[in-house]
Amino acid sequence: MVSPRPFLAALALGCALFLPASGQAASLCAEGVAQSSAVTVASDELRRIAKICLSEGKKDAALLLLERIPAAEQLPGDTIGLVATQIALGQAVKEGIATLLVIDPGSLDATERVQRWQALLLGMKGQGEKFNALTVIDQALPLATLAEREELCRQEQGLLQGASASELNSFTGRSGPTALRYDLQTERARRALHAGETAMARQFLAEALNGSLPFCRRSEALQMRDKIEGGVWLRRAVGVILPLQDRFASFGEAVQRGIDMALAERPPQATPIAFVVRDAGSDPEENRRAVTALGNEERVMAIIGPLTGGAAVAAGVEAERLQIPLLTLAQKEGVPEIGDYVFRTALTSHHQVETLARYASADSGRKRFAILAPDNRLGQEFADLFSQAVLRHGGTVVARQNYSDSDSDFRTPIKLLKGENPAIPDANSKESSRLVGRRAPLPFDVLFIPDVGERVALIASYLAYYGVDNIQLLGTSAWNTPELLEHSARYVDGAVFTVGFYAGSDQSRVRDFVARYGERYGDEPSILEVQGYDLARLLIALLEGGKIRSRSELRSALAQVKHFPAISGDLGFDPLGDALKKPVLLRIQNGALIAAE
């Protein structure tokens, strides 16, 4: 006669494997397997069936299943599941807590992280370890989803409200400048307000709200501070909106390095001014939401950013609505015109063409200008603005040709600039002209090419081939790339282009900054690092000392800035809020860059 136990166990296993992974039937099958040691079950199946048991509240069965996984095959999740189940059953709680604490949460998946902190909280609260439980919550919050965060904050609030005054004092003394400490100070402020101790409540709230970390009870802390102040309270802080993860991340990181350097150079005894950074990418809606959050939740006095045009427009509209001074670094035309609270410090198309036209027109012999531009929005914007600037300075645009972004052959637009028919064979190329001993004069003295350095390097070789030389080449800040000098230095010798910052400047403030930046980061700064540094220093200079107490006062102070000693040149703003900046002109000479004036 066959013993029924192996048969029943095998039947139970079959049920667990093939019945739906939920419901009473599956749970009963799982219990059958758990209670039998006569069936060999793979570790993966043991894990799966244990989850079924746990979902049905069958902790004893789950524990038996997890204990059957061989030690050599155990994963961190198995350990967490086993210990969490033991703690739920009240078994080996202290040992289980110790085991869970040595597991790195960063090595776990989302489900395992939640299971770990849930088990730790259950065990620690059962052992009366309130502070340790609060510390677990503090460490779990940065990795939590929104729903998990809500649960963690609910658990924390229950612990804090159930703590005695002496426990709160002790917990605060044991915690550093973390989100937990800010929540502790908020609870102490709540109790102080209830006891009529307004000054003490204000002191507790000041520490919580002036910190740079988000914390669970921030909204409650803001409401209490508004109640105390009798109006909307603002912190001495600056918001920063940058792209830090998308395709523009390298630009955002450069700006942040400049801001970090400005903050690191402040003396330790200086008035604390927080800089609250938000990654909003380049999506306009994300940037609008970032302005709202910084304004309403973080209560910042001003905002630096965004970097890109569409994001700057959306952020500017929201900043104007909330009446928060916003200093954007975007080059897009028309951003400062959004309203009185929107400022811009970027080197714009207008700044560049005005400087180039003035420079080229200073030579009385150069009055005939030509433009060779890409057929895209920025290229055409530059071409139009340059044409207008040339006219203002007494010159004439005698020829203008476009090319597609996808073009790699520039024969046709160059021949048209020269007034030649592209259909005729290249009899007037430089090489052909040398062979026949003649060369047609060019109808222009200056050629403006508003494109990136990589494309200009290719165009320059075509210009040389077709005899467009001995003229003044002009370009924008987009020329400032290594590829231009690496591939076409001999074709662009003598060309002049604009930049917002020149690291090789002989000005003492620039030399000193470049040296300090090199010591800190081991590299040479670009205009983006300089802009971040300059804007941080400007806002710090206006905010420290406490004289400016409202956003409207800060806006008025910004509007009056005219000669702030910035690294990129004296900084000020015109009546629209656009930076009063003069671009730096660089000349390519013998394969190197030098200041043109």
Describe the protein.
The chain has helices at residues 4-18, 24-34, 43-55, 59-67, 76-88, 93-101, 110-126, 130-140, 146-161, 165-174, 179-194, 198-210, 218-229, 249-264, 284-296, 309-322, 349-361, 377-392, 411-417, 430-436, 453-465, 482-488, 508-521, 527-543, 551-559; strands spanning 237-242, 274-279, 302-304, 326-328, 342-344, 368-374, 396-403, 446-449, 472-475, 496-499, 584-589, 592-595. It is α/β, with parallel strands linked by helices. Among the domains are: 237-346 and 515-559, Response regulator (Rossmann fold, 3-Layer(aba) Sandwich); 349-499, Rossmann fold (3-Layer(aba) Sandwich). The strands form two sheets. A seven-stranded mixed sheet has the order 7-6-8-9-10-11-12, with helices on both faces. The chain has a five-stranded parallel sheet with strand order 2-1-3-4-5, with helices on both faces. α5 (76-88) packs parallel to α7 (110-126), α15 (284-296) runs parallel beside α16 (309-322) and α21 (453-465) packs parallel to α22 (482-488). The longest helix is centred in the first third of the chain and has 17 residues, at 110-126. The chain starts with a helix and ends with a strand. The model is unreliable at 1-25 (pLDDT under 50).
